[in-house]
From TrEMBL, chains A, B:
InterPro entries: ADH-like_N (IPR013154), ER (IPR020843), GroES-like_sf (IPR011032), NAD(P)-bd_dom_sf (IPR036291). The lineage of its organism: Bacteria, Pseudomonadati, Pseudomonadota, Alphaproteobacteria, Sphingomonadales. SMART domains: PKS_ER. Residues 19-371 form the Enoyl reductase (ER) domain. Keywords: NADP, Oxidoreductase. This is Zinc-binding dehydrogenase. It comes from Sphingomonas agrestis. Transmembrane segments: none annotated.
Amino acid sequence: MTDTVTGLELRSTISSDAKLTLSLEPVTLSPPGPDELIVRVEAAPINPSDLFLLLGPADLSTLQAGGTAERPTLTADVPQGRLAGLKTRLDQSMAVGNEGAGTVVAAGENVAELLGKRVGMIGGAMFTQYRKIAARDCIPLPDGASAADGASMFVNPLTALAFVETLKIEGHKALVHTAAASNLGQMLNRICIADGIPLVNIVRSEAQAAILREIGAKYIVDSTAEDFREKLTDAIAETGATLAFDAIGGGKLANTILHAMEAAANRTATEYSRYGSSTFKQVYIYGALDLGPTELDRGYGFAWGVSGFLLTPFLIKLGMEGNLRLRARVAAELTTTFASNYTATISLADVLKPDVVAAYAKKATGEKYLIDPAR
Amino acid sequence: MTDTVTGLELRSTISSDAKLTLSLEPVTLSPPGPDELIVRVEAAPINPSDLFLLLGPADLSTLQAGGTAERPTLTADVPQGRLAGLKTRLDQSMAVGNEGAGTVVAAGENVAELLGKRVGMIGGAMFTQYRKIAARDCIPLPDGASAADGASMFVNPLTALAFVETLKIEGHKALVHTAAASNLGQMLNRICIADGIPLVNIVRSEAQAAILREIGAKYIVDSTAEDFREKLTDAIAETGATLAFDAIGGGKLANTILHAMEAAANRTATEYSRYGSSTFKQVYIYGALDLGPTELDRGYGFAWGVSGFLLTPFLIKLGMEGNLRLRARVAAELTTTFASNYTATISLADVLKPDVVAAYAKKATGEKYLIDPAR
């Protein structure tokens, strides 16, 4: 196959004069190399981790639609004070979209057997109609799986599995998760139930608690309840959780979790330790649903850590064998453990509509949007 | 030797009705076991790490002297809200003092060769006239070394060496230290100069900077200077420091250090990374000169960690061989690298005087008090 293919690709640009522009640009792909594929993208989720590249720190109250029906644009102002840290992307047209799935429409000579197959993909630039990609960044979907089934088979599944791997590597026996009713949180519950790992779920509403009860979660605590701290300490004492993964980031939740872990450790203490318990307590912050500062009052001694957590460096450290093991599990349990739910399926052009932006940028727990670039 | 010895020991008690009492209690020691020594304590420093056991969270504006000249007492109120976390020490008479030095006045049969020798000691309860102690917790001082020379041979020297060990274990190439003109900070400078490790010293006054220049420190930045952030970033960029040890704890200093490390890493970045640089940045908080909350705005991506650091668990993890190696270095360089300076030498009774408490509880950088229980 030597033909080129042309399709529209979503691009995000922040200019040096502080303007965000989203647009759909025609992109022509040359034929794939020997180990490459051309995939017609049929489904790509909007993950929280995509939003910062997509929208940057733009002021969403200034969104303005423009362009034509086929080639819409969307612009917004970026407050000047937020340009710091963006200098390496200024005035560059950035492709967006961490992961997706679709059908292989062209394949290089070394990977010809994948032609016509449906695959899941990781690697960025997925908000596009056609994606040229190395075959090693694709996983063939099981027979009968839809593109929607395979669209989110990397970020959330591997992140949830990375939490459990971290627990094992660092020698913890139970874990705490915040924003626990998210798609990721639901996967994590299914993994932990299957693997026999106690999981304390922190949610922010009774509706979210109900979602988790439905799928068999045992420990669910509501951070809006009056007895939250007490209930959290009880659950941590019962499970022995000394590791937490926090999607919120800002505010005092990480601090509250560390306090609860310390209180749980001290329930069994008989001797005074002026430096706090010797039980090591770790919170990993992997999201930023609250962009405010993290506040740590350190009232839990010196045996604690709070760190950022990012999937890619973790997977690099884990090594090839570990990566293959995790990917194999995702493929095998794609429509069970790792099933995702989507609030709505939208077109590439929809991504540029102000009211749709307002919906997906909300990052509401349990809400998730899927792009179908063929629409 | 079968005689008992009796001496006064400083005790700290916090009662359930929220009163701190310091007192000097007569304590009679039975003869040492086969591997034990009785040491006449001749010098014991008041370390910042002793203060919390000594004074607890008492309100120092309520200090009240009492008792007699030979058996003085000191009392103070503990605000009710601060009793949480103290339940395992309430109404117990606690002995205080992490380390000290003195002369062996009685020795068990297996360690008889130490009789009459001067030793440094670690193990608590050092604010006392006589201390019974396992010989393995003592190090004989080099000939000619005074008790004052050996009084601080554990906490500060091992902490400073632990920082450098941590740097090597975790693969950093330079480090940042706060409250850098302290006795500990001066030792750290001498170690880093000897070992060729770049050290960025953060001080809070020109006087402190002068102390460090005097001993050959190369990188000194003053956090009260207007161009502090810029100078800190320059020093970090030049040294490649990605590890910091922070004695302050509260406020925004740890955050500022992480920002400077990130800015230094981004000076050489050519590609935009929405998750911040991939350079891992770690701050260990080992003190609490500022008791306020630690504020982290997370404006430095996800490759960062902030953790508590405590000497004892570190030494346990390091293992016997590493511990012996560090102790041997301390003994060999006791009056050079690991020399301590003291502001004043005081008696056990002085520790209970309100004006003396005010002086040593200030934890002023470079000020340090030595107790001579024989006075």
